[in-house]
Each structure stands twice: as C-alpha cells, then as structure tokens.
Amino acid sequence: MIEIGGKPILWHILKIYTTQGFNEFIICLGYKGYVIKEYFVNYFMNNSDISVDVKNNRISFLQSFADDFKVTLADTGLDTLTAGRLQRVRSYIGDEEFMLTYGDGVADIDLKKLLDFHHQHGKIATITSVLPEGRFGALEMNNTGLIRNFHEKPQGDGHWINGGFFVLKPEVFNYIDDDADNQMWEDRPMQKLTNDQQLIAYKHNGFWRCMDALRDKYILDEMWKGNNAPWKIWKE
User: Fold this and answer.
1) Which residues form the domain of 195?
2) Any bridge partners for residue 59, and if so which?
3) Domain containing 98 — which CATH number?
C-alpha cells in the first residue's frame, strides 16, 4: 500500500493488467491485510461523487470514477511464505491457467506477448526475466585514475533476474506441497519445475523496477510526478 503519486503501488500493478484486458484478481493477504480490505471495500465510494442526506442517513452515488477491478481478498496467513500463499488460494483459482506477480514491481510489460510466448512453448510455467539497472554509476579509468568514461546507472552485471509476471498452468499445483506454508515459491516449486524442464523465461527488454527500499519509492514517485513513468500504459 506504499503510494506512488498518491496511489498505492498495488493500484499501479492492477492498472497494468486491467489496461490490457485482465481485470479479475486474487490478492493474497498477510501483514495488515485489513488495510487492503478497507481500501477496496471503500474504493467505489472514494472514487465517486456522492450526495449525503444526513438526516435520513442516505447516500446517493452521482458519478463514479472507479476502475474495473474485480478483486478477491484472501487471508493467507501472517507468516505464510509465497508457495503457501499460492497453495491457499488454489480453490479460488480452480482449473484455469492464471497469471501471478508480486506486489512490489512495475513494468511496461506487454502481457499479451507474454501470454503468446507461454502458449507457444507449452511449458507449465513462464517467468518474466529482466535486466536490472545498475544501482551506481560505472567508471572506466586508466591505472592513474584518469576517468576515460562514465556511465550513469548502466545495466547490471548482465545477468537476467526474476521480474515476476508469471503465467502458470493449473498443473503447477502438482509442484507445490500440500503443506507449503514454510516454503518460498522461488525455492522448491520453481526448482522442481526447472528439473522437469517446465520453466521457461520470457525476456522483457523494457522498463522494470521493484520497490525494495525507500530509495526506490522516491525514484518511482519522481518518475510519476515528472510524467516520466514508463509503466503508465493507460490514459487518464
């Protein structure tokens, strides 16, 4: 619920999906899940013009600006790890292919291209891989220390990393233990998928950034305020 430009990062992530035609969500709640529940329960009212008849305790909704979000809010435990959270919402997902992402990363990802890639390769799981930006400027210098070139925040060390934005077939639950509360999705389940050659990577070459620290929040906030937010693929 940390805000970017006055809206929770969760809102930004949902907008990335709804803008591309995907508007049904299951949110796995843990720490302060009640805050997220309160946000969505009051979402329609807080994004509408209303008329209040105080004497008769009546509220009339005049015009709504609410987004087309259909959200299932599932309490998945305070200390449950990521594999366990996924296992706990299995009944809500059913036997359908679904997408999965984290609650702290934004990107200008083309979800339909991601889906097409997933269908073309026929694996159980597709992961989006990204090349993270370097956190510091890089210096090129000679042995006396004279700077020959300076790169402000170049790409990282050339290693692709997990950027979230998964597409998963329902068979993925065969790779998650029944009691997975103490398991990370990124550990045993993904390793088992890798061993069975059922995990493939879609390379996203565009913008991606996660909000791991307060510094990242400030950077994303400045991008938004400066009308330079690449993940904003929707119109006002």
Assistant:
1) 3-225
2) 52
3) 3.90.550.10
pLDDT tens readout for residues 35-58: 999 999 999 999 999 999 999 999
User: Partners of 98 in the beta sheet?
Assistant: 168
Other C-beta atoms within 10 Å of 153: how many?
11
- Burial of 104 (C-beta count, 10 Å sphere; 0-12/13-18/19+): middle
Gap between the Cα atoms of 45 and 63, Å rounded: 10
Contact 130, 204 (CB under 8 A): yes
Q: What pTM value is reported for the model? A: 0.88
Give whole-number Cα distances, 139 to 110, 176, 224, in Å: 34, 45, 29
211, 220 Cβ separation under 8 angstroms: yes
Q: 55-64 pLDDT, tens per residue?
A: 999 999 998 8
Residue 236 lies in a domain: no
> For residue 128, how many other CB atoms are within 10 A of its CB?
23
